[in-house]
Design brief:
Order of helices and strands: HEEHHHEHEHEHEHEHEEHE
Strand content: 15-25%
CATH topology: Rossmann fold
Bound molecules: S-adenosylmethionine
Number of strands: 10
Largest sheet: 8 strands, mixed
Radius of gyration: 17 Å
Number of helices: 10
CATH superfamily: Vaccinia Virus protein VP39
Helix content: 40-55%
Length: 272
């Protein structure tokens, strides 16, 4: 457990996944019926971008700080939440801000310090449960939810070699228990061979209705760098693909480096 999100909060990957996360939640909120959100790798919930950890890497400067300087209307909803929430929000804070009266969030976080932060943040909040447990295990234990509708957000640290296969396996197990749920799983783009193998595994899993949204900052010539990232979405809401394309384009334009090989794409991996 070396990964600490405090060093990476506010980077381009956060902006990309959080803007899409908010869009998915808003689509769930269009129907009156309550929904459930499982955040399997929740982190600390909120981060001080002026703290030592964030300053050491300074990943927020070419990330969220830049997006806030030149706010695109397409990102207005997401950036508005970031500004409104004060302390830079992680996924649990963003999700909590979108939940309505009868909706619920369960966060899983394995690092004791981050889990303790989450507990403090959501102390006495009847809408949120915090579990200091493995999110991979929670996919089996906590699904399907009572609400029978909702979103499972899977955002692993990718510090282990086999995390692509853990993500495929987690999506497969989660989908087997909650086949109508929306699943969103983040992954890094370092080298394309690993991404192609991951997509191939998902296609052969037989899970229907999968799209992948990818943001590339540059060509993947150096596999040691985070050259981009993607989000797998199973059971995407109506018109989500075009919305996701616009969001990914807006994040890329806002970051504005425009290196060779930069681009944003939405790929359909499996039909409905
Ligand atoms: C990328 S960060 C999460 C960031 C968060 N989702 C957000 O968007 O603000 C990944 C987190 O997963 C935690 N973690 C690592 N292995 C885990 C596991 N098996 N189950 C739950 N959490 C885990 C790490 O401690 C870290 O806080």
């Amino acid at each position: 457990m070396n990964y600490r999100h405090a060093y990476h909060a506010g980077n381009f990957a956060d902006c990309f996944k959080h803007a899409l996360l908010v869009a998915l939640l808003d689509s769930l909120s269009r129907k009156l019926a309550p929904y459930f959100v499982l955040d399997t790798h929740a982190g600390a919930g909120g981060y001080d971008l002026e703290a030592e950890e964030a300053r050491r890497t300074d990943e927020a400067t070419p990330g969220i700080r830049r997006l806030l300087q030149r706010p695109s209307p397409i990102l207005g909803r997401y950036l508005g939440l970031v500004e409104q929430l004060g302390l830079y929000p992680g996924s649990p804070a963003l999700i909590r801000a979108v939940l309505r009266g009868n909706d619920h969030l369960t966060c899983c976080e394995l690092h004791p310090e981050d889990a303790a932060n989450l507990r403090r943040r959501f102390h006495r909040d009847a809408h949120v449960e915090v579990h200091e447990r493995s999110g991979w295990e929670a996919l089996g234990a906590l699904l399907p939810p009572r609400e029978r509708r909702g979103l499972v957000f899977i955002d692993p640290p990718f510090e282990e070699r086999d995390e692509f296969s853990m993500l495929t396996d987690g999506l497969r197990r989660g989908h087997a228990r909650f086949s109508h749920g929306i699943f969103a799983g983040w992954y890094p783009v370092k080298k394309m061979a690993a991404v192609r193998e991951f997509h191939g595994g998902l296609v052969s899993s037989g899970i229907p209705d999968i799209v992948s949204i990818e943001l590339h900052l540059r060509e993947t010539t150096n596999p040691e760098r985070l050259n981009g990232c993607g989000l797998i979405v199973i059971n995407p809401p109506y018109q989500f693909e075009s919305q996701a394309q616009s969001i990914a384009n807006a994040v890329l334009d806002g970051l504005g480096d425009n290196e060779i090989g930069a681009g944003a794409t939405v790929i359909r991996l499996a039909d409905e």
